[in-house]
Design goal:
Layout lengths: L1 E5 L4 H12 L3 E6 L13 E4 L7 H12 L1 E6 L6 H6 L1 H22 L3 E7 L22 H20 L2 E7 L1 E3 L14 H10 L5 E3 L11 E2 L1 E3 H16 L5 E6 L5 E2 H12 L6 E3 L8 E2 L4 H6 L8 H11 L5
Parallel strand pairs: 1-2, 1-4, 2-3, 4-5, 5-6, 6-11, 7-10, 8-13, 9-14
Antiparallel strand pairs: 9-12
Helix pairs in contact: 1-7, 2-4, 4-5, 6-8, 8-10
The protein binds UDP-4-deoxy-4-formamido-beta-L-arabinopyranose (WQD).
């Protein structure tokens, strides 16, 4: 009996792998190592594989049979909003083609439980205070489109092939559950500010004229360990044999602004980042904050770690980089 984690060598996936390892599950990691790293998965077997390759469905189905896979947690995808605007076909190929291959392999191998890493990017820019799962989804990037299409693909497979699936729509992930599992990518606000501090550069604030209390964008920052625990709760839910499909926001329900994040980093690091206001970045909603009511009620999951813990653990796990 094994749980397969695709993209399990990456930042978020590795946290789920470690929680599964700690509770004694056998874990099989499939990753193309395009951004993940082998040392993130410890003792678990890691099979290097490109999910979008033509021969993947047969190879992956065989691996599922060989390992006695009973459920899949799927992280293996590209995730940069800006990059997806510049390289849409790469995102459609990897995120949709790769997911189609995964679903085909699961059907062939008779694996019927799937937890899918979706995104708040599926909502697009909606003028609401708290995003709820019943809202219309109008993604504004190819990345968000691929995540929404993946949700549709899951629902179609549930009808056609008896799959059971849960989609988790992530908001902004931060922090580290262990110092060796910090976010190695320097793509988001917290790592970008930490790198600026290392290099003696000013932090950058992309716009301070948004419709928020301090004029900077508000996001819903969830500790990566809280997020990982939501995946284990979703796996348990699938084992309960209730609804074949459900979708849940994973967030805290609290909005934190760019300025507040930078102030928290300055507090933890004991420095002044001399943050500079820059022009707005394209496509940034003023506020992206979720209502976590459904996941709390249905899965019994609630974020327990504070923003301070997210920033402190991000700083503690930070490794200087270029
Ligand atoms: C946050 C805010 C920037 C850097 C992330 C993930 C995405 C999705 C949603 C999962 C924005 C501002 C940033 C900087 C700044 N998650 N900023 N100065 O865009 O919310 O997207 O969460 O699917 O995959 O990437 O995160 O950290 O890039 O930006 O002012 O140096 O911080 O403009 O308002 P974003 P982010």
């Amino acid at each position: 009996m094994a749980i397969m984690v695709t993209g399990g060598a990456g930042y978020i996936g590795a946290h789920v792998v470690r929680l599964l390892q700690e509770r004694g599950d056998e874990v099989i990691v499939v990753d193309d190592l395009s951004s993940g790293v082998r040392e993130n998965v410890g003792e678990s077997r890691l099979v290097e594989m490109n999910l979008a390759a033509a021969d993947t469905p047969a190879a992956l189905a065989e691996l599922m049979r060989e390992t006695g896979t009973t459920a899949v947690v799927h992280f293996g995808a590209l995730k940069q909003v800006g990059e997806s605007v510049e390289q849409p076909l790469r995102y459609y190929d990897t995120n949709i083609g790769g997911f189609s291959n995964l679903l085909a392999a699961m059907q062939t191998a008779g694996v019927d439980q799937l937890v899918f890493s979706s995104s708040a990017a599926t909502y697009g820019i909606l003028d609401v205070e708290y995003l709820t799962e019943d809202l219309i989804t109008r993604p504004t990037s190819p990345y968000g489109e691929t995540k929404l299409i993946n949700e549709w693909m899951m629902q179609a497979q549930i009808k056609a092939a008896g799959l059971k699936g849960v989609a988790l729509r992530y908001f902004n992930v931060a922090g580290a559950g262990w110092d060796d599992l910090g976010d190695r990518a320097t793509l988001n606000l917290i790592p970008l500010v930490l790198r600026a501090i290392d290099h003696g550069k000013d932090a950058q604030i992309f716009g301070d004229d948004y419709n928020t209390p301090d004029g900077t964008c508000q996001r819903d920052y969830v500790h990566v360990l809280d997020l990982a625990e939501a995946h284990l709760a979703a796996l348990e839910y699938l084992g309960r044999d209730e609804l074949p499909y459900d979708v849940f926001n994973v967030g805290t329900g609290t909005g934190t602004s760019v300025k507040q994040i930078i102030s928290e980093i300055e507090r933890v690091k004991g420095v002044d980042t001399n943050a500079q206001i820059q022009p707005r970045r394209g496509g940034d909603p003023d506020r992206l904050v979720c209502s976590p009511e459904r996941i709390e009620k249905t899965l019994g999951w609630k974020a327990t770690r504070t923003l301070a813990e997210s920033v402190e653990s991000a700083v503690s796990a930070w490794t200087p980089r270029d």
